[in-house]
Amino acid sequence: MKSYKSLSLLPYLFFLCSISFAQPSLTKHVVLIGIDGLSSEGLQYSNTPILNKLISQGVISLKTRGAMPSVSAPNWASILSGAGPEQHGVTSNNWSLSNHGIEPTAKDEDGYFPSIFTLIRKQMPNAITAMFYDWGWLGTFVNKKYINKEQLVQGNVMITSIALNYLKKEKPLYTFIYYGYPDEVGHSKGFGTPAYFQAVADIDTEIGKIIDGIKDMGLAQSTTILITSDHGGIGFGHGGESMIELEVPWIICGPGIKKNTILETPNDLTNTSPTIARLLGLKIPAEWIGKSVNEVLGTKAAASKSTQYTAKPWSSLAEGSFPGPQQIELSTTATNSEIFYTLDGSTPGTASKKYSYPFTISNNCTLKAVSISGSNSSQVITRTYTFLQGVKSATLSNQPSQKYPGLEVSGLFDGLIGSSNYTNKQWMGFEGDDFEVTVDRGEVKPLNTLGIYVLQMPVSWIFLPAAVEYYASDEGQSYKLLTTFYPAETDDIRLDGPVMLARNFENTSTRYIRIKATNIGTCPVTHPGEGKKAWLFVSEVEIE
Ligand SMILES: [Zn+2]
């Protein structure tokens, strides 16, 4: 029975060998450094002299895509296995070998999807591999029996020191060193905050120690360093669909790798392990869908100097709408660089205004800014600023639902209207509640038109208001009803999508305006949500 089984494998092995030849190895050691929660933007806004030096000695991609959802486990699984969630089956941080939804497309004898560790052990049985990390889940995804040394360590400094000791002692072929710290700080203090940038800078220091250690061992010329992340973040979290959550840096340097080059071709985290396999001269298995990024291979410097990495500028003023003039300060972590900017939406370059001091804006504008160092340009940042026209202040009587908070009350006057997608942040949602806003225009002024921009989408339990009332007041105490109307009866309104509910007034002047839109209360009879609270969505108030 036994001999029958091994015999039956022979034609299969022969077939494998005949289609896939390993290529010669280009490096003797690979160190993959994982930084959890580092967006491409986070890299550019943080002080990272060590990473900047590595980039100048290698290749960087600022547009490497993570897998969806933009959370840790699916992405680290993709990084370590050369395949996406659809193949390895890790769709959330709750994944475990015994409890998961999707079956992997391939399994080893213990049920694990083949990782880079498995690949190395099977093709280079004597090679030494290691993994040092401070997030326990990583140890559940890889089959530990294929790793010579794996250790869960707490604390950035400890991770570095334990990893360095092992590198010195064993000189592994492949080492994965993982730091979870920037993600932790992002969750507790906010992504894109000074604390988060400092956390990234702290990891930069740790990476500096690893690089120095490798130099001291005399292995600098024979070691490839690859640095990447699983996702970025916004606010206090990630998992959504914004590019700041999905785009991460991917940096590689070492023997056989181009120098001082930006990788412009699309890249994906699933390419990480196939690229490492290529560098080590290993065959890439069929169940890996990522590919080796051969564009990074080459010994020459970048063909054109204009492809060198320069960090993009930072604007001190976040996008939004404002009641009065605002000051903007621009800065960049790029050394020996200058910032150029435009306010009319045109692409900035050296012919544009050069930034030297903070400046003030008081009209709607689009800021575009770029860092330029010699002949190298950074990515361009774009920020849209709007000013509330003719509105001194505004207050809401009822706050919107926390699920759909919109953009403060000022967002109602920013001239930006929500699309048919009600999750768009331009929309405020009121669950069972009415919408009522009171506006102070600062002085008595003529009034021609009043309108509110609402959403009609019964399939999502979002309905037109039952009634809209427009009021006026000169002193802000007693309000006079200008008009009431019932949208469902009086307007010719299309079935689904945003709707402007406006009325014209003649010979009217007023300082204060109040607009009340009455929620229909509960979903109507025959609707699937019959009797449950109905939603009212408002995006914009128009006063002319
Ligand atoms: Zn993560």
Give the termini distance in whole angstroms: 88 Å
Rounded to an integer, what's the Rg over CA atoms? 29 Å
Helix content: 10-25%
CATH superfamily descriptor of the largest domain:
Alkaline Phosphatase, subunit A
Please write the CATH class name of the largest domain: Alpha Beta
CATH fold description of the largest domain: Alkaline Phosphatase, subunit A
The amount of beta strand, in percent, is 25-35%
Number of helical segments with 4 or more residues: 13
Structure summarized in a few sentences:
The protein has 544 residues and is α/β, with parallel strands linked by helices. The protein has helices at residues 2-19, 40-45, 49-56, 72-81, 85-88, 116-123, 138-141, 156-170, 181-189, 194-216, 243-246, 272-280, 487-490, and strands at 29-35, 59-65, 129-133, 149-152, 174-179, 223-228, 247-253, 261-262, 267-268, 314-315, 320-322, 326-328, 330-331, 338-342, 353-354, 359-361, 365-373, 376-377, 381-387, 393-396, 428-431, 435-456, 467-473, 480-485, 497-518, 535-543.
Written account of the structure:
With 544 residues, the chain is an alpha/beta fold. The chain folds into 3 domains: 24-306, Alkaline Phosphatase, subunit A, CATH 3.40.720.10; 316-387, Immunoglobulin-like (Sandwich); 393-543, Jelly Rolls. Helix content is 22%, strand content 29%. It has helices at 2-19, 40-45, 49-56, 72-81, 85-88, 116-123, 138-141, 156-170, 181-189, 194-216, 243-246, 272-280, 487-490, and strands at 29-35, 59-65, 129-133, 149-152, 174-179, 223-228, 247-253, 261-262, 267-268, 314-315, 320-322, 326-328, 330-331, 338-342, 353-354, 359-361, 365-373, 376-377, 381-387, 393-396, 428-431, 435-456, 467-473, 480-485, 497-518, 535-543. Strands 1, 2, 3, 4, 5, 6, 7, 8 and 9 form a 9-stranded mixed beta sheet that branches. Strands 20, 21, 22, 23, 24, 25 and 26 form a 7-stranded antiparallel beta sheet that branches. The longest helix is centred in the middle third of the chain and has 23 residues, at 194-216. The structure holds zinc ion. The site of zinc ion has 6 residues, from loops.
